Amino acid sequence: VKKILFPVLIVMITWQASAQDVQKIIGSIFNSALTDRSAYNNLEYLCKHAGGRLAGSQASVRAIEYTREALLRAGADTVWLQEVTVPHWVRGYERCTISSAVNGSKNLSIAALGLSAGTDTLGISAGVLEVQSINELKNLDKSKIEGKIVFFNRPVDNTLVNTFSGYGNAVDQRISGASEASRFGAIAVIVRSVTQFIDDYPHTGVTHYEGGVKKIPAIAVSTMGADLLSNWLKSDPSLMVHMVSTCTTLPDTVSWNVIGELRGTSKKNEFITVGGHLDSWDITEGAHDDAGGCVQSIEVLRLLKSTGTRISRSVRAVMFMNEEMSASGGREYADIAAEKGELHYAAIESDRGVMSPRGFGFDAEGSRLKRLKSLSKYFLPYNIRDFDKGGSGADVGPLKELGTLQIGYIPDIQRYFAYHHSVNDTFEQVNIRELQLGSAAIASLVYLLDHFNY
Amino acid sequence: VKKILFPVLIVMITWQASAQDVQKIIGSIFNSALTDRSAYNNLEYLCKHAGGRLAGSQASVRAIEYTREALLRAGADTVWLQEVTVPHWVRGYERCTISSAVNGSKNLSIAALGLSAGTDTLGISAGVLEVQSINELKNLDKSKIEGKIVFFNRPVDNTLVNTFSGYGNAVDQRISGASEASRFGAIAVIVRSVTQFIDDYPHTGVTHYEGGVKKIPAIAVSTMGADLLSNWLKSDPSLMVHMVSTCTTLPDTVSWNVIGELRGTSKKNEFITVGGHLDSWDITEGAHDDAGGCVQSIEVLRLLKSTGTRISRSVRAVMFMNEEMSASGGREYADIAAEKGELHYAAIESDRGVMSPRGFGFDAEGSRLKRLKSLSKYFLPYNIRDFDKGGSGADVGPLKELGTLQIGYIPDIQRYFAYHHSVNDTFEQVNIRELQLGSAAIASLVYLLDHFNY
């Protein structure tokens, strides 16, 4: 019996010591994150001094310069900018007034959709046609649509616990509504803000016109404004709307991804990327979307460096430019990686807000997924339990073509769309501990991915 | 083979149908919660129209009357008030100024501790002795303490992921600091606010004097104020503080628990209690602490009633009075239950804020705990996974003497102490979905506890 037990015990003791060491390293990462304010201070700068960081704007340039320096402060061995072509859309004066013989007159809380066409300074006036979906529109007589402002008013389904599913099921109105309404002769569209919440903030976002259609103006209206407009239409279907939105689209311009790299100890030419997007909509500080993801990515470098955690691969924190309008920063990053023949081992995107960490979504299958899910045991002391199959995000997504393991960081997502793409997405809406725990979770996963080899 | 398989299949189909039915009922509860605003509207009333609901105050009376009506609206079969004796402490004028020959003069953000003794209107002036703990104080020469204002300045340990543990490890300074300092001849105490966050809000809370000690004034100072005072003391140990706090303790008075009952379908004389506390500190709307727990408890009745969920036992939603100063409401509720010989099957307390639901803590052991934990499977569609051993809370705690299963509702707790006992605990800091999901989780657990018998 002794002869058999002895080697078994040795193996068990060795394995236990190793698991304990791993847990200890993760502990040091979390302790460092929870007692350091630099990520929070970086967030404050991006929100308060470089808010409204739409690609092509002056604010985005301030953010590029600031994060370049922040990456150096965090301990990156090299920091560089990567040129990216971006659209150059500029919001104008905007106003939307309902005039009803029955109910009187009312200004709505609105914001032009990104990349939308504008009106002239006098604006346009027309009657309103309310629909719940693009399909409903397609089944109407063209004569009912011609010359009208189409009002897309399908609310987000609040019973969906996954708020991103609710968003995903309603966002087609915002992305394709203008293009589809234009085909049938509409002269503009008003889209209900795509959010679960009843508030008076317009939540903007991008709209896309299909090739060949006339680009008609498109604005988002707050959910409270949408409810009001819908109610007024019930008592007065012939009410008129006057809309001004003098936004313009200038020629494409140049911007940059900001990249900081911590050189690996042995596999220097293999890369793990962590990233968020540096641009935001122009009307918002973009704290949750996605200054938070950027400062967490910078903090990953600081955490690995300051705790002395040895990572064999090189770790890159990337501030992607122009996720919001056409995701050209993520595309460029992957294209250059492919050109250089770089080996990108894994990529983690943080772009779902800065709430308490819940886990990660892995774009993997079978036994690989099972092994990745088993990493959740190291996160139990931090109550981070949701290790599931899932996707990454718009920015690291193109790296999939290089065979890179795609991972999405998943915080609690219940309140995200209260902020998303609106003036409500402020620094004040981020809790420092929720930010810190997220950075620590991502840094810990980087360490584990490197340590265990997937 | 057919002979064996047939009954096995029947049993499997029956069992599956049952599990599906259970899941369907829980689904209907969540759907109803996520599409109804009455709990949120009730919360708004309690925060905005009956804020500062300290036991014995006029605001608390408005809250009692409002929740009595809200319970009837929610569908309670019976609603009644239960008399509770409560302390009657009233805040006065309060100010605290540092005067330093080196640094000048500065007012601190302060709030008297609940039940603390006051000063006269002229206040008191004295030098300041900073300590990190009661133990440090006890080891000092009494001569160093006499005539001084003792400043307890031990921060909460931010590396503890469980914020309630961090709070628990630091709150002794607030609860016993004044009493202990008084023994050594101090004339007042200033206590660093017990919170993980650096802000300029004083976070108040109760203090207790041991019998026989002189009751000396006690105030909380904001964490920013505490850091400032500590820094000034380093450059000028002889600085003086002038403190005014004209709070008074009046004779005990009468208040009420508010109880709404939904009669059980068969075991009418067995009870499941869900509850929160209706009182709050006087300086705050008390949205997270604990108007949220109250409106969630009311909502549990509405959800069970409106979805037609059959519960064999009677379900009581209880708004406990005076949790903050001496928890006399919870004590009274259990005492009356004991007097009447009532059978209290289970009790769930919601008093950890209104963040996204994470799970429940069960005060159970062995196979019973294991069975309770297995209920988590029904909550997987809602990402509610933390079913662990744990406690209930100050209000339903006394029911343990009757053998009642004690359960605490556990939301995400990272940002709770940013609000706790401060003016920052407002209606605006509550997200409607996080509130709704919590109500649905508690109502679902009530149904499951009743359905499966633990």
Oligomeric status of the shown chains? homodimer
Helix content of chain A: 25-40%
How much of the sequence lies in strands of chain A comes to: 15-25%
Would you identify the regions of chain A where 5 or more consecutive residues have pLDDT less than 50? Answer: 11-16
Terminus-to-terminus distance of chain A: 37 Å
SSE run of chain A: HHHEEEEEHHEHHEEHEEEHEHEEHEEHH
Q: In DSSP terms, counting alpha (H) and pi (I) runs of 4 or more, how many helices of chain A? A: 13
Q: How would a crystallographer describe the biggest sheet of chain A?
A: 8 strands, mixed
Greatest interface by residues involved = A-B, 27 and 27 residues
Taking strands numbered 1, 2, ... along the chain, how are they ordered across the largest sheet of chain A? 1-10-12-11-13-16-14-15
Structural class of chain A: alpha/beta
Mean pLDDT of chain A: 96
The total strand number of chain A stands at: 16
The Cα radius of gyration of chain A reads 24 Å
Shape, per Cα inertia axes of chain A: elongated
